[in-house]
């Protein structure tokens, strides 16, 4: 009678029947060549279900063959391990251990018994390859006490059948001299013997690679000042009364120190080591592999190796040295994920930078999943060390882990639907820009913020929208650039338009000229002259604010007028002429007044009250430019009266009011030698600016009040306002609105210093 085939034999038969090499099946399934080979040779007799499922997809198996393969896998996983299979051979203490001084100090302080002699257990968790075991060994070695045995046990936490609690206690007892070799018959018996042994002799226990709390709890019944240290990729949050250390990547200087110990001096320089550390995401395993590969090949320089792994495609594949592999380390954690969690893990690989929350993660998924459910899945990834939890319900995916997750996403798409590889990124981009448009709508007088839907977040109020825009800029700004590159011109133009009024509240962002330039290009691609004129106008403002280049602003304003004339749109003719009048005045050229009156006429024809108010205010600027401050003040007050006489003050009107109260009325009053009234006007400007969270407008209003204080001889008041206005400005900025504003404040501060 023929014996049944093993899982490995069946896999080999199916692979050969499909005429596939190991490499070809690895490419189609996303399972590494080494893993497939181990299964076929019987080295890995009980692979994880997800591995078998991926192989079945790669083999293009029908439903019956797929189920047969999965059945065999389940059967193999159900067979309990026979005999003592625990590893009690401790890994060696690495000679080139680097960094972690803060963590080592914390661990050793936890392991030093307080006055009552009891020591709290220590749990060290973190990402695969982050150095949990080496750090634990280093801490235990530095705290080594004469005559105290150190018991090491690998709990086999990432295997299909981790050690049971009774196996754990039994393996530890066998390491204690004089404890006897008899195997405990029950867990209660094992725990009683463990307590007796540790009551007689203190020990230090290192439980490596734990899978669950149940493996650990019986060990924690130790007596006296015995110490227990546990390492796990999981957080083991269910353990009570323990001290916790979560290891992250090494600090940059620690990474360079480690690489310098591994790579010979003639194969490196400081710059090479810094880049190699960055490419390795400061993960010790990745750096050790890279360093070993370089050191083992004298002809290879560190800079050469960095150049080879710089591309995302090469990095994971090349971080292999002998039996060390970053991909293999991550795979063990990945294969422990439930299918929905694994799907999310692959999907969030398209989140390229910074931290993110559950809403952003959910946006990458093909099917709708509640935010609460996504948070649960993210917590599972965090618990397994594949994701880092940050404050405020934010998460961070380390670069190497992101590349690994992306490789698994590509592998899954290659089997199921090759064209789907870009889908998560497309979904995320649409969601981000949909959310951005809805956020921007809160600051526009003519738009109604949309509710929740498939294309973004619904915001409860303008404050929530403002906070989201600033917080998620590192996500939506690349999405905006990607949409422009993808030719989504209508979307780019519409989203940029929604951000126009908000841009005045965040004038120091620094990228408005780039954003509105994208919108101009998209408008031209759409052959829409009205949109082109509109976005050219926005670009005039952004260019002057961010670069101070008034000549370029004038050139753009003239282009806006030409486009508006071709569009025959009264509103855009009004705004284009408004920007042109402003630029003519800023450049000291003639013609500002008639152009401004043309803008007023066009705004009247369009029924644009906001435009009319802006143009009326500009008339005051033109009067001030000629030294007629009385007339300027009258124009500003007329503009203010128009706002007050209109509908209830909107965000836009408040912004305009700040501009009127500050730039115009307060400075005009100082010029008319009426500083007390100027202070009152600036007070109102500051109050409105703070209400709409316009930080730039607050700073400008503070400067106006400081100037008025100087006019009254109040040096202390002026200094207070100037120092407040300077708070938060980037002192290293080399250009743009912050630099120009700072430069305008320094002479005022010097004047204030000369007054009481």
TrEMBL record:
Domain HTH cro/C1-type: from-to ranges: 11-66
Domain of life: Bacteria
PROSITE patterns: HTH_CROC1
InterPro entries, per database record: AAA+_ATPase, AAA_16, Cro/C1-type_HTH, Lambda_DNA-bd_dom_sf, P-loop_NTPase, TPR-like_helical_dom_sf
Gene3D superfamilies: lambda repressor-like DNA-binding domains, P-loop containing nucleotide triphosphate hydrolases, Tetratricopeptide repeat domain
Pfam entry (one): AAA_16
SMART domains linked: AAA, HTH_XRE
Coiled-coil segments: none
Protein name stated in the entry: Helix-turn-helix domain-containing protein
